[in-house]
Design a protein that fits this description.
By secondary structure, the protein is α/β, with parallel strands linked by helices. The protein is built from 14 helices and 17 strands. The chain has an eight-stranded parallel barrel, surrounded by seven helices. Helix 1 runs parallel beside helix 2, helix 3 packs parallel to helix 5 and helix 7 packs parallel to helix 8. The model has no long low-confidence stretch (mean pLDDT 97). It binds ligand TNX. It is an enzyme of class 3 (hydrolase). Pfam families: Glyco_hydro_20, Glyco_hydro_20b. Its EC number is 3.2.1.52.
Length: 476
């Protein structure tokens, strides 16, 4: 068995001796766009990097031959050379990640691989607890190993507003000062955000910013009470659904236009997420009015809108709007209808079923952090054993943009806590997003054990789930 997670489309073990890294080993690149990946791999393996495509012994050859297969790659390891070829730089990067997982053993193998879904995401809630730039970069490095290619940042919520917006200084002066439990607040300047975006891009990860409206807005309302029309107190609890922007006030839309314009300008990726979940204090009529206007505004700044599935209650969304489903693997009728509505409006769906893909669920009743509202705890095996096509049978493969594993941080003040709940379940979800079929769990488990060596090497925290025979490394 080839010890890679997510499992590649095909892999055939070869004969002969292993490829060993030695004093003469070098990374050689050829084709435009190959150099950054070659430098990344050279850095990681501490090897020299040269340009060319001459055969030679102890060469790791990276070659791009431009083509249509985004993210696909071929990898061959034999005794004196490794070759990775791809149609585009992301494919080369994924080939490099596979190689990394196969070292230091370097057993001979031929792999041909390509992603199942175009959108393979993680979400980090930086609103309930704030995570500085360095923590976000660490998370990006960890998820990039799993060939995840989107990081959704939940930037605003009742407990904190985390992004600087020019012309609205109190959003961060006041709105960013709080976090759950009275823990320290914080925010990203636009320069910080750009640093995250660029770092992510160097790992072929695209940032998806979320400005959650019209609910989940208490922090913005404390900063600018006129956006809601009442008076507001800072909030450090964990209840949801009590706040709302003033739906019928023009100031709301001037505000959103400013925010969406600025966020769009510093976000090179195609998506802008405007939340829309749990607007429990907004009437149906107001919600529909708001959804239409806010989504049109976001789209007017050149972005494809993403919303939580409740946004699909609106039948007046910009064409192509993406819905993110966060119900259970057995949906209620109205959430299924809201989700299907995006497809009926020319869009697609991202699946984040809360009972299997929410990384903030406890693993077991005695987990020291986490929550359990989504049908109780979620074991590693449960996170690994679901079928995106079985959730809403009306939605076919072609309607599914991809999958995302969110982590909400009400109970998670540190990045170590985040990592411990995310890993290894996020690897199981990355496998469903990448691999063409869901492997039986007993085939995944040994690959997770092998992957943990890389988590250990990077100092990434993870839960030694009882379903896996972990290698005898340091306990975390
Ligand atoms: C539900 S999921 C929420 C979040 C919470 C999360 C906690 C979703 C769209 N809304 O506001 O943080 O549960 O697990």
């Amino acid at each position: 068995m080839t010890l890679i997670v997510p499992a590649p489309v095909s892999s055939t073990p070869g004969l002969g001796a292993a490829f060993g890294l030695g004093p003469a080993t070098r990374v050689q690149f050829h084709g435009s766009g190959a150099e950054p990946v070659a430098r990344y791999l050279g850095n990681l393996l501490e090897l020299p990097v040269v340009e060319g495509d001459e055969a030679g012994s102890s060469v790791i050859q990276l070659t791009i031959t431009p083509g249509e297969r985004v993210g696909a790659y071929d990898l061959a390891i034999d005794v004196d050379a490794v070759t990775i070829s791809a149609d585009d730089p992301s494919g080369l990067f994924y080939g490099a990640q596979s190689l990394r997982q196969l070292l230091p053993e370097g057993l001979p193998v031929t792999i041909s691989d390509a992603p199942r879904f175009a959108y393979r995401g993680a979400m980090l809630d930086v609103a309930r607890h704030f995570f500085p730039v360095a923590d976000v970069k660490r998370y990006i490095d960890a998820i990039a190993q799993l060939k995840l290619n989107y990081l959704h940042l939940h930037l605003t919520d009742d407990q904190g507003w985390r992004l600087e917006i020019d012309g609205w200084p109190e959003l961060t002066a006041i709105g960013a000062s709080t976090a759950v439990n009275g823990d320290p607040g914080g925010f990203y300047t636009q320069a910080d955000y750009t640093e995250i975006v660029e770092y992510a891009a160097s790992r072929f990860v695209t940032i998806v910013p979320e400005i959650d409206v019209p609910g989940h807005t208490n922090a913005a309302l404390v900063a600018y009470p006129s956006l809601g029309g009442g008076s507001y107190e800072p909030y450090e609890g964990v209840e949801v659904g009590f706040s709302s922007l003033a739906i019928r006030s023009e100031e709301t839309y001037l505000f959103l236009d400013d925010v969406f314009r600025q966020v769009s300008a510093i976000t090179p990726g195609p998506y802008l997420h405007l939340g829309g979940d749990e607007s429990l204090s907004t009437t149906d009529e107001d919600f529909l009015y708001f959804a239409e206007r806010a989504a049109a505004l976001a789209a007017s700044h050149g972005k494809t809108v993403i919303g939580w599935h409740e946004l699909g209650r609106s039948r007046a969304l910009p064409r192509g709007t993406v819905g993110q489903y966060w119900g259970f693997t057995t949906p209620e009728d109205d959430s299924a209808a809201s989700t299907t509505s995006f497809v009926e409006q020319g869009g697609s769906v991202i699946f984040s079923p809360a009972d299997v893909a929410y990384l903030d669920m406890k693993y077991a009743d005695d987990s020291r952090v986490g929550v359990d509202w989504a049908r109780g705890v979620t074991s590693l095996e449960e996170a690994a054993s679901w079928d995106p096509l079985a959730i809403i049978p009306d939605l076919a493969e072609s309607h599914i943009l991809g999958l995302e594993a969110p982590i909400w941080t009400e109970t998670l003040p540190t990045i170590e806590d985040v990592e411990w709940l995310a890993f290894p379940r996020i690897a199981a979800i990355a496998e469903i997003a990448w691999s063409p079929r869901t492997a039986p769990f007993d085939e995944l488990a040994p690959r997770l054990a092998a992957f943990a060596r890389h988590l250990d090497a990077a100092g990434t925290h993870y839960f030694r789930a009882p379903e896996v025979d972990w290698l005898p490394t340091s306990d975390r």
